[in-house]
Amino acid sequence: MENILKMQQALTNSIFEVFERMFYVFLEPAESPDGEHPYRVAISFSGPLMGELMAFFSRPLAETMLKNMLNVGENEINERLTSDCLKESVNMICGNFLSKHDSGQVFDLSIPTCTSGLQVDGIKAATDFGALRLDFSGGEGSLIVMMTFSGRDLSVG
Amino acid sequence: MSFNVLIVDDSNAMRAVIKKIIAMSGFKMDECWEAGSGKEALETLSHAWVDVIISDINMPEMNGLELIGRLKGDELYKEIPVIIVSTEGSAERMREAFVQGAQGFIKKPFLPEDLRKTLYEVIGVGTDGEYTEDATSVDELDF
What we know:
The complex is a heterodimer. Chain A is an alpha+beta fold. Chain A has a single domain (2-150), classed as 3-Layer(aba) Sandwich (Chemotaxis protein chec), CATH 3.40.1550.10. Chain A is built from 4 helices and 7 strands. Chain A is globular and about 45 Å long. The two termini of chain A are 15 Å apart. Chain B is an alpha/beta fold. Chain B is 37% helix and 18% strand. Chain B is built from 5 helices and 5 strands. In chain B, helix 1 packs across helix 5 and helix 2 packs parallel to helix 3 (64-72). The two termini of chain B are 21 Å apart. Chain A binds chain B through residues 17-18, 21-22, 66, 69-71, 80-81, 84-85, 87-88, 91-92, 94-96, 98-99, 102-107, 109, 111, and chain B through 10-14, 16-17, 20, 58-60, 86-93, 96, 107-111.
């Protein structure tokens, strides 16, 4: 249980670090944010710790991230660029978390995927499978992050 | 003196960020080429003169470490300095990149200053765009 809490803290710190440095968004922990989270981004990782990291973004948060990262206006936002930006964010969160988890080990990350349309019911179903779940608000929107994991190495360095 | 830069990353957004940071840093950039994979980077190099490569690791088709391996095995490209910009920041992965021949490593997420500082160090120029004493000039390269 202690290891899980340490992993949760490491993941939270990674999320804050990525959002603050790359997107200039200051997130705050939230309780089960309402509304739609139409963007689902997933990345899997393998090594001493294996699993999948999924993030569900509300549209306002996704747009804020894109505007802040690339300094683009409303009329320059499109689905391709949004998807690209969100995939990069999850890639960075996952890599940053794994470095915090154990910087002495090598982990392999998959190429992130982005799909749209999964709503809150889908998120609840995913949570029911026992994933670690973190909820945040900020950037005029909200974010739900879930991680499933397994492996011999469940200690945080 | 200005330099041609090749940015290799499968993310359009990240390529745009890196390009923006370089432009804002005052680095004297002439051409900026972009590639979405190691394979595309090699295609670009076949028709473009590049002074420094900034590359991600985790990419489809050919990753950043494979790209460095290909560059170091080619007489024409082996002297081009490569800076890795990656989320994969473990000590072992960094060691692997340097053993392959990378000359700089920046972990994502990074601050603009991290990229600027590493770029200047690797290419061996001062903020005035002129080579520093320790730098390898193009004239010294053995083709």
